[in-house]
């Protein structure tokens, strides 16, 4: 994969993840990210049944709830679903980044001592970037 496509994944997924934060805009996260990753995979001739399974599996994570009304089990499950399906394509150490980034930034943006300095929008950008980096490395 060339550097331009890597940047498209990293920046594009980060922006779509951020845009898909609430309400109607969730379509950006739920559908936009899988479409973008699929486009880059097709463009790079990397789309096959393994990458299709990985992209669909990750898309399930974008549909799972993880907000304040959800348990820690649901949050951890959603964060794992962002990256574990990429194992269909192959192992890459970046697989640990999305769950760790999600859990870490979720705690920082919801902790009384840190939430005024660390906003959820920042968390969304960082989580999206970690997902984009992972896909840029496994495709």
Provide structural commentary.
By secondary structure, the chain is mostly helical. The chain has one domain. It has six helices and no strands. It has helices spanning 3-19, 26-43, 49-63, 72-83, 97-110, 120-138. Helix 1 (3-19) runs antiparallel to helix 2, helix 3 (49-63) packs antiparallel against helix 4 and helix 5 (97-110) runs antiparallel to helix 6. The protein is globular. The model has no long low-confidence stretch (mean pLDDT 94).
What can be said about this structure in brief?
By secondary structure, this protein is mostly helical.
Describe the secondary-structure layout:
Blueprint: H1 3-19, H2 26-43, H3 49-63, H4 72-83, H5 97-110, H6 120-138
Helix pairs in contact: 1-2, 1-6, 2-3, 3-4, 4-5, 5-6
Q: What structural keywords apply?
A:
single chain, 139 residues, mainly alpha, 6 helices, 68% helix, globular
Find the structural class using helix and strand composition: mainly alpha
Q: Specify the helix fraction band.
A: 55-70%
* Total number of beta strands: 0
What is the chains' assembly state?
Answer: single chain
What is the overall shape? globular
Q: What is the count of DSSP helices, taking H or I runs of 4+ residues? A: 6
**In total, how many domains does the architecture comprise?**
1
Radius of gyration, rounded? 14 Å
| Strand/helix succession | HHHHHH
Which range does the strand content fall in? under 5%
Measured between the Cα atoms of the first and last residue, the distance is: 7 Å
Largest sheet: none
Uncertain residue segments: none
Overall average residue pLDDT: 94
